[in-house]
Amino acid sequence: MHSFMLKNECFIRWNGWRIFLLLTGIIILITFSINDFFLTEGLYYQSFGEKLAADRIAKFIELTMKWQWIGYIMTSVVILIRVSFTTLCIYIGCFIGNFKVRYRDLFKVALLADFVFVLAGLTKLGILFFFKQVNTLEDLQFQPLSLFELFDKGAVDNFLIYPYSLISVFELLYWLALARLLSGVVNKPFDSSLKMVASSYGIGLLLWVLFVMFLTVNLS
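Request: output the structure for the sequence above.
Response:
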């Protein structure tokens, strides 16, 4: 336990923005790899051939390729929002629990835990390469090791797609990583830190999921 805390303190000393740039760079590289290998013109024609005319598909492909760089920028924005959301939830939980901890240290904890989603991206890339046949754009939207993959996609109501996709092995690993890293920051046992994660980030995530479900129901 003592050796783990020493290692954890070393992690916390890392520069937060360097961690962010490393995390973002790896995830963008994974996204680029998926796009470059699988997001071909043929895939667009297979996906929309029965719905759109060939010239409209060609125009859509042209616009997609032209503005693809915006997607990579948005990836960094999404990561920043996700990490900030997690940090804020845990910070509020620590404040209520009267734990003295700096916001920037919790931000680094959330950044480091976010590398779990790098593992998720690599898993998805590996499955696409070796196990899954990609025939349409929908085939690229699968969420590996998630509850959503256990259901028939057409039988799931729209408002349940997001929560079903969120419940996954990687989300569980994310919680465990948060708790393990947090335990070294607040100097509490792992089980206490896991309860802190559940009562702070867990509640925040639940509220967010309910909000997304509400929007889906009202906008669909």
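The chain has one domain: 2-219.
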